[in-house]
Amino acid sequence: MTLQNAHLVVPPAPRGRIVVVHENRGLEDHIRDVANRLAALGYAVAAPDYLSPVGCSSADFDDNIERLKGVTRDDVASITAHWLAVLGEIAPDTKSAVLGFCWGGGVVNHCATVLEDMSAGVMFYGTAPAAENIPQIKASLQLHYAENDDRINAGREAYLAALSEAGVAHQAHTYPGAGHAFFNDTRADRHHAPSAALAFERVSAFLKEQLG
User: Fold this and answer.
1) What is the number of alpha carbons within 13 Å of residue 100 lying toward its C-beta?
2) Do 95 and 15 form a contact (C-beta atoms < 8 A)?
3) Among 7, 11, 108, 116, which is least packed by CB within 10 angstroms?
């Protein structure tokens, strides 16, 4: 497996580590911009190309979406763990978070059930992890949902209830008037500017609380 492909941004004296997980469209400019914004807050950030096992992201989003079906849950956990470790060498003795959108939101939820080196997770409109694995989550979670996102919201209440039952620290926010992928400002058909701005404020505060 090829693991070295990522957008890496490291500010002076980073205060924490963050891995950013892209949407099913692959590693593209929007995700690089998110990584840059988080680095501007003082964090060492890696945005890996999760298509690395099947040939890396291309400019063809439809092709990326199709090829991503060949990337397994074991692959995404391994890639995430690799970059958390790389960032740990760059910023030792810091806490870590994993943040993801859409497909990447599901990766955040899954990684929270299997990775020890994960202090916090920030999920945007991602699928819930397997129910039997939820009690294994040790990270604190911040979960962002769109009001108009029926597919993801179908599993939301059961996931939140399971987190509460398992004693997992979490907060959940739903954004009125927003739809799936509302944070992506490169998609005029999806972007919901007021919700995206509020979400980033909440993410910034959560990361400061969890990572320092």
Assistant:
1) 30
2) no
3) 116
Question: What pLDDT score does 165 carry?
Answer: 98
- Local structure of 155: helix, strand or coil: coil
Looking at residue 4, its pLDDT comes to 66
Q: For residue 100, is it within any domain?
A: yes
E strand or H helix that includes residue 171: strand 170-179
Residue 1, in any domain of the structure = no
Domain span holding position 161:
6-211
Structure tokens at 18: 């963050």
- pTM, to two decimals: 0.96
Of 80, 101, 97, nearest to 138 (Cα)? Answer: 97
Amino acid in the structure at residue 28: E
Number of H helices, E strands in the chain: 7, 7
> Are 6 and 19 contacting, i.e. CB atoms less than 8 angstroms apart?
no
Q: Which residues contact 124 (CB under 8 A, 6 or more apart)?
A: 99, 100, 101, 102, 104, 105, 144, 183, 199
